[in-house]
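Changelog note: in this version the structure field was regenerated for every chain. One regenerated record is shown below for reference.
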Amino acid sequence: MAAGQIVQAKHHLKAPSVRTQIINIDGGDVVLPGGLALQHTASAVLNHDTDIWIIPAMWRNPLKSLRRTAAELSPYLNNALAHQQMICSVGTASFILAELGLLDHRAATTHWAYFDLFAQRYPHVRLKRRHLITQSDSLFCVGSVNSIADLMVHLIEQKLGASIAHAIEQQFSPEIRAPFEAAAFQDHGSLLHHDELMLEAQAWIEQRSIQTITLDALANAVGISERTLSRRFKQATGLSPLLYHHKRRTEQAKKLLRHSNLAINELAWQLGFHDHTQFSRWFKTQSGMTPSRYRQASRGKLFSHESQQTGAIS
């Protein structure tokens, strides 16, 4: 909803560009045990224009209401999958997708407390215990409520652009977000590709993630023209070669700012910049914050997201 409001304000739109609906199969508002009510805003219908379905986690033991819930959602989720609409299950909601057979022979994850039960009940699903997010084509599974923020920022970038995603990330604790690419397991056949030459190009970029690179140098390294490289790389990864490099370099910079005590000028030198002013301008363009501001925010609020991930999945 926040992303939609930003787009609406940025482009001076009268109507929201993003419409979010809360659907209750039984109809009416959803009243939670604590008394909070979620307003029912639409009826469930079989349609072709929904972009993404988000299935919330089931409370405690998912088996208690699993069969009934799966049966109720079956026509909507099967229709969504048939029309390549994205489906995201949160926590134990992956049991619903698995119960319907939608995850057979696909990668998936679930809440860590139910790993063993999930693996025993669904032997044909490839459970990824060490990943908080999985993607197989248009099916996403998120193992924790916190990790859905990582997925949402990624999807916002895909649908609405990097500037909107940066604004959302900056608003909602950017210092503890894990990049989608680092947190997610992505099935072959979805975002992973089989263009061996572009895999070679990606490896070349990864080896130089803290350096300044040029398209000409990359094209020479893989032996094709710049034009062909740009076209094939975009087809394979969804990004231009230089934007791919910028994202990797930004991730490395954020990691160093969070976890090292290097002065900004020392950190700039390590990342291949001539001086800290050049680095600061670049970092602010990429992340929306100065390096000092990012470090201050992360040191003030960081509770070690990486440690939390390791603890949750070990």
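Spot check on this record: Residues 196-309 form a domain with the Arc Repressor Mutant, subunit A fold (CATH 1.10.10.60). The longest strand covers residues 86-90.
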